[in-house]
Structures are given as C-alpha cells and as structure tokens.
Amino acid sequence: MLLHLDTVTKSYPDTETPVLHGVSLDLDVGGMLALTGESGSGKSTLLHLIGGLDTADSGRLEIDGTDLTPLDDAGRAGLRRGTVGVIFQQFNLIPSLSVAGNIAFQARLAGRHDPARDAELATHLGLQEHLHKYPEQLSGGQQQRVAIARTLAAGPKLVLADEPTGNLDETSSDAVMSLLQELVEETSAGLILVTHSERLAARLPRRLHLRAGRLT
Ligand SMILES: Nc1ncnc2c1ncn2[C@@H]1O[C@H](COP(=O)(O)OP(=O)(O)OP(=O)(O)O)[C@@H](O)[C@H]1O
C-alpha cells in the first residue's frame, strides 16, 4: 500500500466545522486517482496533509509505510524531498535558476541527482531547446513541463498535482496531462490529481469526490 488514510480530520482555527471530516482512503503502489469537489470542499487541504505541508488534527496517515502523525517539521520536509512530489497550478519555478537548474533542484535536495535522468526527462517533455533559458522566457505550458520534470527527476513514489493545468488552455492542458500521466506510469509512481475538470478527471482510472470535507 502506498497511501493509507484512516479517519483523518482537519480544522483551521477560524473555521466553525472541520474542513475534513473522517477522511479514509487507500491507494496502491502505482495507483492513480482524480480528486474532485466544489471550491472550498477541502481538496487542497487534503493534498497538503498527504504532502506533509500541514498536519491533521486526528486520524492516521501513512505513506509508503511511514506514519506521518509523529513527524516534526523536519521529518515532513524529508518526506517531501524523498517520497512525495507536489506540482502546483502556479508552477512555482525558481526564477533565478535556468530550466536545467530548476529540473535538477529537487533531485539535488533529495541527494539523488542524475544528469542522465534529467536529460531523458527534458527530451520526453520537449524541453531540450530550452535548458539554458529562465522561467520568465517560457510559456505557461513549457513552465509546467519544467515543473513536472523537476518533480519526477527526484524520483517520488507519490505525485500530488493540484490543478496542474489550471493556468493552461485546453490544448496545452491535455498535452501536459498526457505527459504527466505517461511519466508517472513509466516510474510506477502513484498520482493524486486535484481538478475541477470533468474531462481531466475522466482520464484517470479512479475518481473520488469531496463534498463539504467528506469523501463520496
Ligand atoms: N490556511 C487556512 N486557514 C483557514 N482556513 C483555511 C485555510 N486553508 C483553507 N481554509 C478553508 O478551508 C476550506 C477548504 O479549503 P481548500 O483550499 O482545501 O478547498 P478546495 O476544495 O481546494 O477549494 P478550491 O477548489 O477553491 O481550491 C475553505 O473553507 C477554506 O476557506
């Protein structure tokens, strides 16, 4: 089992009711699922808990056999570097680093930088011509492909993608999504894709829906 959540609950100090109520879910190694739900239903909150960016109030959360509950900030940061990769809607590239520097960044942090793997990813994602450029010189679709390369270069077991194509037009969005799926499949990583798009959700074999903090 890659991911196991058992009755996870989360509130924020200023929310009256919990944002997540007793969320339980399992994902097998290499499993892929789409997570949909209305705005405010708790999708990003759930992704943040799984990615170790925030902590649950109660419940159990295990990734690749590691219980996240007792981990401190440093432990959760280690998990993000080594096991989980997160791709955001806003790309979050480092503006002062070239495309090549951005692609290598997370793998270097994780202590597993492999230039041959970077080159392979850059080729697969059509970025070979752009390696010396800086993020501001790229289109949105190109920037998101760099963000995908950066995440996959670090060899995560689980990829969390929060509206990864939300800033792209439909054609670029489909192309970027196909590349992301291909690469995740190739590495046998798991994927959780948060999306508002029915079209994108339908591409994945499994779908979960959050309604006011409960999975349906
Ligand atoms: N850091 C925070 N502090 C307080 N409340 C928060 C915080 N983050 C999210 N919330 C609240 O928690 C609820 C769920 O937010 P979340 O971002 O998880 O929803 P979402 O389903 O991802 O929404 P969207 O589709 O609009 O991104 C919302 O009511 C939001 O206002």
Characterise this structure.
The protein is of the alpha/beta class. It has a single domain (3-215), classed as Rossmann fold (3-Layer(aba) Sandwich), CATH 3.40.50. Helix content is 34%, strand content 24%. It contains seven helices and ten strands. It has helices spanning 43-50, 73-82, 99-109, 115-124, 140-153, 170-186, 198-201, and strands at residues 3-10, 20-27, 32-37, 58-63, 66-67, 84-88, 158-162, 190-194, 207-211, 214-215. A six-stranded mixed β-sheet has the order 6-7-8-3-9-10, sandwiched between helices. A four-stranded antiparallel β-sheet has the order 2-1-4-5, with helices on one face. Bound molecules: adenosine-5'-triphosphate (ATP).
Q: What is the gist of this entry?
A:
With 216 residues, the chain is an alpha/beta fold. The chain contains 7 helices and 10 strands.
Structural key phrases:
single chain, 216 residues, alpha/beta, Rossmann fold, 6-stranded mixed beta sheet, 4-stranded antiparallel beta sheet, 10 strands, 34% helix, globular, binds adenosine-5'-triphosphate
